[in-house]
């Protein structure tokens, strides 16, 4: 089935398969006939054949997790990142405080100062991850695309606070080259069209 | 009784014990791998190359786990129950001829611990005694799931004992002996002499009831996780649980050996394949069949199990015995 057919949502112009459900047997004789039919139809062996074919085909779907990882979609909302400007390496955050204001669980805390160039910069930027619900509003509201959600889901640690300080979230200045631009909310996975699969109705 | 005989028997016992304990461990690895491949997974991969040392890791885990006895349990019975399962499973192997005779340095070794003339009866009987393991375990645990599991065990094993007995009765009538060696020799004429051709119904019945007696899918109602946690083994941990496990796998091997010897020509030479290898191939085919069905089939409800046993298999077994008798008379 091509993608175009798949995208056709008009019920009625599609070919549906009507499933035939047999009547339940009522008399003992009918029940007996059903038992005999089922016994000699060898349906059980169909099941055996299917699993054996799967074994021979050896089409394994295991992802051996710590060794292999599946790329994560850009919409994923993990622990936050503070980004830098790509050219100058300056912090993007202008200390406007919108994220602090919009945060529905009140977990962002910022301290700002005016630096020597007359720019307002945050001296402190912490997120209390005990309270953050990863709603993404802070990243949505930020006018400078400064606070975004990172892709790191391996957050095991003995203290949540170890991800939450400014120096943990800010892109290190030497890693500036590797900084990925935030795609924006609702951005589809790369090559999302190719990933669409037909729902297997015709089993 | 000569000294050499005693030493030989003790040696054989040790070999059977050691070999089949190891095989039981290895079978768990094979089972996990085969099931995984059939379900498009990889199975154990991390311990050793391709996870082969997983068995060792599991063994270490089992041996070092706390040996826990719940407060409400009847202690002596709770402790002895797994021993019964494991012991009877190995005792049943005493009368099974595993391989053809062979000679080392002019000394003929019979690879059977004790060639008693009612071998088959003995094996089936001892396997039936194994039922006391789950039964006592479930009743002594002081746990409702265990009790339910024990009740199911008794119901299942008692019912299928009947089918096993009746299904092997027909081949025994043909051979005229209960010794497994006699049964084996009866089929020494090649593939066309195998009892499966003269007794196909008995073979299928024996296989079905063998599955039921070793609690394998589709008849694993006595420790089905989704319904009764772990059945009679719910309260067990560590090596006591391990003994149930070894018992179950040893029983699988026993049933596989029995099926191969009674119906598939045992350890007779098969075309160019020597007998010892032939029987190993047959046994491992049956073990594979155990795993295969486990991957493919759902398990049955207890009432369906009883229906299958008493209303379908038992009458067929009786009819089979009667027809065999009539044919023998004519
Ligand atoms: S994701 Fe939501 S809850 Fe978490 S810091 Fe941002 S706005 Fe607050
Ligand atoms: S909304 Fe953006 S720019 Fe404003 S304070 Fe928050 S992170 Fe800084």
What is the topological layout?
The complex is a heterodimer of chains A (203) and B (330).
Chain A lengths: L2 H5 L20 H14 L1 H15 L22 E3 L15 H5 L5 E7 L5 E8 L9 H5 L5 E3 L16 H4 L22 H4 L8
Antiparallel strand pairs in A: 1-4, 2-3
Chain B lengths: L2 H36 L15 H11 L10 H18 L9 E3 L2 E3 L9 H11 L2 H9 L3 H32 L4 H7 L8 H4 L1 H14 L11 H4 L9 H26 L11 H22 L5 H28 L1
Antiparallel strand pairs in B: 1-2
Helix pairs in contact in B: 1-2, 1-11, 1-12, 2-11, 3-4, 3-5, 3-11, 5-6, 6-9, 6-13, 9-11, 11-12
The structure holds iron/sulfur cluster (2 copies).
Please, could you describe this protein's structure?
The complex is a heterodimer of chains A (203) and B (330). Chain A has 203 residues and is an alpha+beta fold. Chain A has helices at 3-7, 28-41, 43-57, 98-102, 137-141, 166-169, 192-195, and strands spanning 80-82, 108-114, 120-127, 147-149. Chain A folds into 2 domains: 3-57, no CATH class; 80-178, Alpha-Beta Plaits (2-Layer Sandwich), CATH 3.30.70. Helix content of chain A is 26%, strand content 10%. In chain A, a hairpin with a 5-residue loop joins strand 2 (108-114) and strand 3 (120-127). The model of chain A has no long low-confidence stretch (mean pLDDT 81). The model of chain B has no long low-confidence stretch (mean pLDDT 82). Chain B has one domain (3-329). The interface between A and B is medium-sized, with 15 and 15 residues. Bound molecules: iron/sulfur cluster (SF4) (2 copies). One iron/sulfur cluster binds next to helix 4 of chain A. The site of one iron/sulfur cluster has 13 residues of chain A, from helix 4.
């Amino acid at each position: 089935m091509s993608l175009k057919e798949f995208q056709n949502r008009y019920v009625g112009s599609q070919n549906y398969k009507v499933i035939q459900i047999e009547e339940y047997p009522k008399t003992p004789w009918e029940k007996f006939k059903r038992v005999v039919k089922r016994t000699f139809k060898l349906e059980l062996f169909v099941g055996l054949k299917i699993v054996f074919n799967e074994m021979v085909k050896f089409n394994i779907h295991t992802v051996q997790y710590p060794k292999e990882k599946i790329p994560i979609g850009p919409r994923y909302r993990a622990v936050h990142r503070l980004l830098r400007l790509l050219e100058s390496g300056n912090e993007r955050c202008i200390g406007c405080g919108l994220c602090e204001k919009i945060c529905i669980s009140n977990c962002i805390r910022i301290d700002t100062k005016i630096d020597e160039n007359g720019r307002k910069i945050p001296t402190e930027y912490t997120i209390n991850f005990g309270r953050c619900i990863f709603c993404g509003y802070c990243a949505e509201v930020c006018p400078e695309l400064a606070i975004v959600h990172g892709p790191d889901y391996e957050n095991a640690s003995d203290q949540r606070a170890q991800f939450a300080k400014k120096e943990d979230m800010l892109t290190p200045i030497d890693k500036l080259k590797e900084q990925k631009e935030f795609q924006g909310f609702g951005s589809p996975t790369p090559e999302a069209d190719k990933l669409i699969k037909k729902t297997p109705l015709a089993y | 009784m000569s000294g050499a005989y005693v030493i030989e028997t003790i040696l054989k016992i040790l070999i059977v014990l050691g070999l089949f304990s190891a095989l039981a461990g290895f079978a768990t690895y094979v089972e996990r791998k085969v099931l995984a491949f059939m379900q498009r997974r990889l199975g154990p991969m991390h311990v050793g190359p391709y996870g082969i040392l997983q068995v060792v890791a599991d063994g270490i885990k089992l041996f070092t786990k706390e040996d826990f006895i719940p407060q409400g349990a009847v202690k002596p019975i709770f402790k002895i129950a797994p021993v019964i399962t494991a012991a009877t499973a190995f005792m049943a192997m005493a009368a099974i001829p595993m391989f053809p005779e062979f000679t080392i340095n002019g000394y003929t070794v019979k690879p059977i611990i004790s060639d008693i003339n009612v071998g088959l009866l003995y094996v089936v009987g001892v396997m039936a005694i194994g039922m006391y393991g789950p039964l006592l375990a479930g009743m002594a645990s002081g746990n409702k799931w265990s009790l339910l599991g024990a009740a199911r065990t008794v119901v299942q094993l008692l019912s299928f004992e009947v089918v096993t007995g009746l299904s092997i009765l027909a081949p025994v009538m043909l051979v005229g002996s209960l010794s497994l060696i006699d049964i084996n020799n009866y089929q020494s004429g090649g593939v066309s002499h195998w009892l499966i051709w003269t007794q196909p119904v008995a073979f299928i019945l024996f296989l079905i009831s063998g599955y039921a007696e070793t609690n394998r899918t589709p008849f694993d109602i006595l420790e089905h996780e989704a319904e009764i946690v772990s059945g009679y083994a719910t309260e067990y941990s560590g090596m006591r649980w391990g003994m149930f496990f070894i018992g179950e796998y040893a029983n699988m091997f026993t049933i596989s050996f029995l099926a191969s010897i009674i119906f598939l020509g045992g350890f007779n030479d098969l075309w160019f394949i020597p007998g010892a290898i032939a029987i190993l191939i047959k046994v491992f085919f049956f073990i594979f069949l155990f795993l295969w069905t486990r991957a493919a089939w759902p398990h049955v409800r207890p009432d369906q199990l009883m229906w299958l046993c008493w209303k379908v298999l038992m009458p067929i077994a009786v009819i089979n015995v009667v027809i065999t008798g009539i044919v023998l008379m004519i």
